[in-house]
Amino acid sequence: MRKIAVRLRARPVGMPQASDWDIREEEAAAPDEGEVLIAVRYVSVSPSIRNQMEAGGAYLPPLAIGDVARARAVGEVLESRSPAFAPGDHVEGLLGTQSHFTGSAAGLMKVDPNVAPLERYLGALGMTGFTAYFGMLDIGRPVSGETVVVSGAAGAVGSIAGQIARLKGCRVVGIAGGPAKCAHVVDDLGFDDCIDHLDERMGERLGEAAPRGVDIYFDNVGGKVLDEVLLHLALRARIPICGGIAHYNSIGAVGLKNHLKLLEMRGRMEGFSIYDYPTRHLEARDALAGWLADGSIVTREHIEDGLDRFPEALKLLFGGAQLGKLMVKV
Amino acid sequence: MRKIAVRLRARPVGMPQASDWDIREEEAAAPDEGEVLIAVRYVSVSPSIRNQMEAGGAYLPPLAIGDVARARAVGEVLESRSPAFAPGDHVEGLLGTQSHFTGSAAGLMKVDPNVAPLERYLGALGMTGFTAYFGMLDIGRPVSGETVVVSGAAGAVGSIAGQIARLKGCRVVGIAGGPAKCAHVVDDLGFDDCIDHLDERMGERLGEAAPRGVDIYFDNVGGKVLDEVLLHLALRARIPICGGIAHYNSIGAVGLKNHLKLLEMRGRMEGFSIYDYPTRHLEARDALAGWLADGSIVTREHIEDGLDRFPEALKLLFGGAQLGKLMVKV
Predict the structure, then answer these.
(1) pLDDT band at residue A58, thresholds of 50, 70 and 90?
(2) Residue B270 and residue A271: Cβ atoms within 8 Å?
(3) CATH superfamily to which A2-123+299-329 belongs
(4) Where are chain B's structural domains?
């Protein structure tokens, strides 16, 4: 069977380019014992891709030149030599940037397209939603009445993290790039306020939006935004470090000058990973599905059509030109 | 009664100078109701003094020009209008940089010069020791077999923090400035290794000294040392932020470039204060007194003679020319 694969051609300098990728037609391998062959339907486009493109020193192990990127995706099992899956099953996993996946069935998770549209398992009902869920609830630990600031607030994880904090009775302030995104964050996602990080008055606006200080800062961006929020911490503030998009392309990635505010405020800055909660993914999915069903969380997907759109979609992601979870439809 | 007071004359630029202080003879006030008059015996010289000298943006509230610095000290009660203390009692508290303290008895702690020399209540048996105790045990949470790195390892807090981690069965690596201090840290304090932060090979030495990564980094300095240690974190590393001496004089205070290692390693960087453990100071004192008594912790004081030596002592502190707890004898 023929398949389409998106493979790394060159390591990027700064913003990734379409020319960093090869899109090839090639033969799909047949599954060995314990393996499955999957027709991929949707491929997640996430900041972690950028990290893999680096030769080293990055947050994730690097891809080799010629590799398919490690991307989460959803698809349908075509052939199975694993007792865990049968043809027709739908699954989510690290299927990569390709139209067909042949590989181990281990680590794949069954999903049900009758419960929610397949693409949602890459967004609110998948690792995106789980990241928001564990980062906010387990690392941030919101208490009703606290002030929570979320950067990347119009993005896939930030939009959900902020809404979870709202459900817990917090005042929630987003940070996003540009007036259109800020309007979306307040009007559509129900945040109490949203600050444009392109606004030179960002620091002043933070002081106004969080007059008693920031109890939780859910950070997706790092750089100067993190450094500014550090100046506004409340006593015993928590900072779940979810990402650092400013650092991935080395754009706006200033060094942190204000980390001693953690000392003054007895604050805590903490990295986390969904892979630290392997036994609780179903708990997160059930909670998120409930909130989606009763309308207490709204979510959005931005779907680009065709695997050949993957390089452009990655530019959209870092250009900040999309709302919600970005993916390509195969 | 006449007294000597050391009062702020000018705010420093960079390293504090003797000319930043006025040393005056003046009248000691008589105690009001609820107050005591204390003859101060030893005054602690600590990095927090430098912070208070700043006009703002610093870690502690600023002194006004003309103020006595808020320094911890030990002394003897001369007159008491508080039921809590009687003449002849010895106390520890924020008595300030002066030979006599008149003020509220609240916040003063009785100490016993028959149990330990009076000066030790400014060192291992006082806030210095408590800071090491709570920072290492409550924030760092050492587990036997882990690798612990301590900066400012020859200093008052660092020397004790490292020895506590040794008692808990950890491999302990100090970071200190210069070969003499490093020799003291290994030979006298019993650390397993010590790295000279003035050595350009610091990063390489860290990799050798902590081949399985750093589980706890007890940070007294911030700046480039913290940024380097971030590159060597082990999974689920803890970084108690105890101070940032590189930042106080704005010397070597680079911005942190490597905070995303917290994400990669699911690390935690956390500020703390002894004032967060008000009910547990006696627990800390008992534990530290036991370790001192059985020789499992050794401690050192560097005592300058005379309150007029206070400005020079502060320069010694930041010049790194002393070992152990620095204080002046009144």
Answers:
(1) low
(2) no
(3) Medium-chain alcohol dehydrogenases, catalytic domain (3.90.180.10)
(4) 2-123+300-329, 127-275
